[in-house]
Each structure stands twice: as structure tokens, then as C-alpha cells.
Amino acid sequence: MKQTQVKVAFLSAVLALGTILAGCGGNSNNASGGGTSAPAANQEQGEGNSQSGEQSKEKIVIATVGPLSGSASDYGSTANAGAQYALEQKKAEFEQLGFTVELLPQDDQADAKQAVAIAEMMVSNPDVVAVVGHVTTGASIAASVKYEQEGLVMVSPSSTGSSLTDEGKKVVHRICARDDQQGSQAAIFAKNQLNVKSAFIIHDKQAYGQGLADEVKKQFDQDGVQVLGYEGITAGEKDYSAVINKVVAANPDLIYFGGYYAEAGILVKQARDKGFRGYFMGGDGFDSADLLKIAGPAAEGVVFTSTVGDIAATEEGKKWIEEYEQKTGNKVGIFTSFGYDAMNVTLNGVLEAIKANGGKKPTREEVLNAIHGTKDFQGQFVKVSFNDKGDNEFAEVFVYKYENGQKVYVGKAE
């Protein structure tokens, strides 16, 4: 009995072991012979390799900074959208070199304090090697102090204030024209093309607006155009009747306002409502469909300068606009084109720095030097060569007007 029990136990153990081995062998055969579990195993392995490949690539981050909310959000959002489009087109080229390149958009609300806070965050992030921005002059000037301390290069698509590059910071660059170009050429255009003999100048007391107004006044004084008044207003208010009353009493040929579209729209409407029939002119701060919404029919005939030319003037430009809008779902706005070219200038500098560094990730200093040395870079919309100050030697100024509810290109400011 005991012997039989032992034999039975032995046979049971053998059978159990055989079952286990058969199960293991079955899994092994499925893996090599195309069974159902093989794809899952291979997929996991492939995903692991893919993740490993991504992890093996070094990360490069480009920050974009501008107002994505608030009264100047039209400028920041369009510049950011253009920059993002440019970066997406370059990702594959960076991946071939062993890098992932990422966008880090930031909202400074066109506020100097917020701009400084963001600059502090950007310099503390070791992966950030360059900044495309800031978009507005006041924010750019404030943030540039922090960037200069840490050697983090910035390329602004749209900050026109002359003092931005006059302060001598090596990190600061812009692809657009300066206010002493925009302001002086606006004044020359007003005198020569609009036959203006007298003007009343208003500004918003901010870095961009007052700086632009000062340059216009300087050129008017030089050319003999009589300046009948020079007044500052407070941005964000809704009633500017006090200064408009002074304008109407002075009866100038032209009102020039240095500031942004939110206040410009109000000033235009209130001036027309009070009977002013002369020209109303400003800078690229007027370039927004929101001005038309605010001013309504009073915006008819408003003239403004811009650092951005008519990108739809050529067949190539029209094709770019069509492709951009199809791929992004966004409409081209005021600084889409210069956000695009500012990013391309920046990425070109990063690629040059990688090349100079033997294919390794460059330092911030190496990226700064590469971008600062940019010469004859042909962007999609503007050619770029930076001088010692960081200004673009090829920047130009253009003139537009609002007519029948549309923005109409007039030509180069001459």
C-alpha cells in the first residue's frame, strides 16, 4: 500500500512538472512563432526602446515671453503662435543631432514686474538656452537686467524702444526697427505725404508709447512742423475728454498718439465725437482688429506705422499664410511673422553653437555668441544682421491705414 502510494505520488509530481514545462515551452514558442502574446511583448520592448531613445536625447528649451492675457494680448499671442510654428518645423533637425527642442511659453501681461519674475524663472531653468521675447518694450527692458546677469540671450520680435539696445547689454537683440527709426519716419511721412503743418502729440506715459512720441516730436521740431501740444494720459482709463478738449481747441492737422490699441481706439472715437476732422496717426501699437472694434466707424482713415511689412504682398507670402493657417488653425496676426522669424534666428544660433561645440549641447554663453554673431540670415519675412548693440541692420518701417473696416498697406515709410 505504501509502495503504491509512493508510485502514485511520484507519477503525480512528474505530471505536474510536465504541465509546468509545457506551459513555459508554449510561451516560448509563441514568442518565436508569431503567437498572440508575441506582439504585446514586442510592443513593450519597442516602447521601452523608444522611451530609452527619447531619454538619451538631451533637452533644449526655448522660452517665448509676451502678453498672452490683458490689453496687449493680441501682440503676445500672435508672436508666440508664429514662434511655435517655427519651432515645430525644426524639431526633426534637432532630433537628428540628438536633441529634443521644446517651447516654454510665458505670459508677462506686458507688465514690467511680471516680466522680471518670469526672467528669474527662466534663468533658473538650466535647460532654457534662449528667450524669444519679450514682446513689449517695457517688459523687455525690465527683464533684460536679469538675462544679462546670467548670460541668457533674448531675441525680441517687436520691442521697438530705442533705450532697450542703447543700454549696452550683450544679451539683448531684436529683429524689428527701433523707435527712433519708426518715430522719425512716421513724422517725415506725415509732413511729406500728408502735408501736415501742425500736430498735437499724446502718449501713454509708458516706455514704448512715450519713447515713440518723443521721437516723433523731435523730428517734427527738426522739420518745422508746429507741435501745438504734448500730453500724457493714463493707460486703462475710459474717458480722455480732458485731453481731447485741448486738442479740439488747438485744432491741429494731426493727432499723434504713442501707445497701444486699447487707448488709441478710445481716443479716436472721442476725438471724432468732439468734432476733430484731421488725421489721426500712431505706431505699430495701433495694429489690431480690436482698435476697429473699439473705435467703430471713427477708425476710418487712421494711419499707423509698423515694423512689419505686408507679408501677403508676394505669392510666396500668400502661400506661407495659407499653409500656416491650415496647419495651425490660427489666423495670421500682427506679430505672427516676426515671432516666426525671431524663433528661426534663435534656432539658427543654437544650431551654429551645437556645430561649434562638436555636436554637444552648447552653453548659454555659446548660444549667446552664436546669435550675437548673426549676419545676413535670410528669414521668411526679414533679413537679419545684428550690430554690436543687437539691433537688426535690415529693419524697416512701413505705413498702413484703416479703410472700410480693413487694414490697408500703404507702402514703406519715406
Would you spell out the secondary-structure blueprint of this structure?
Blueprint: H1 2-33, H2 37-56, E1 58-66, H3 73-96, E2 99-107, H4 112-124, E3 128-133, H5 137-150, E4 153-156, H6 162-166, E5 172-174, H7 179-193, E6 198-203, H8 207-223, E7 226-232, H9 241-250, E8 254-258, H10 261-273, E9 279-282, H11 289-295, E10 303-306, H12 315-328, H13 336-356, H14 364-372, E11 377-378, E12 383-384, E13 398-403, E14 406-412
Helix pairs in contact: 1-2, 3-13, 4-5, 7-8, 10-11, 13-14
**Percent strand:** 15-25%
**Helical stretch count?**
14
Number of strands: 14
Biggest sheet character = 7 strands, mixed
Strand order of the largest sheet: 7-6-8-9-10-13-14
Provide the succession of SSEs: HHEHEHEHEHEHEHEHEHEHEHHHEEEE
Mean pLDDT: 89
Q: Quick gist of this model?
A:
By secondary structure, the protein is of the alpha/beta class. The chain has helices spanning 2-33, 37-56, 73-96, 112-124, 137-150, 162-166, 179-193, 207-223, 241-250, 261-273, 289-295, 315-328, 336-356, 364-372; strands at residues 58-66, 99-107, 128-133, 153-156, 172-174, 198-203, 226-232, 254-258, 279-282, 303-306, 377-378, 383-384, 398-403, 406-412.
Question: Main traits of this protein?
Answer:
single chain, alpha/beta, seven-stranded mixed beta sheet, five-stranded parallel beta sheet, 14 strands, 18% strand, disordered N terminus
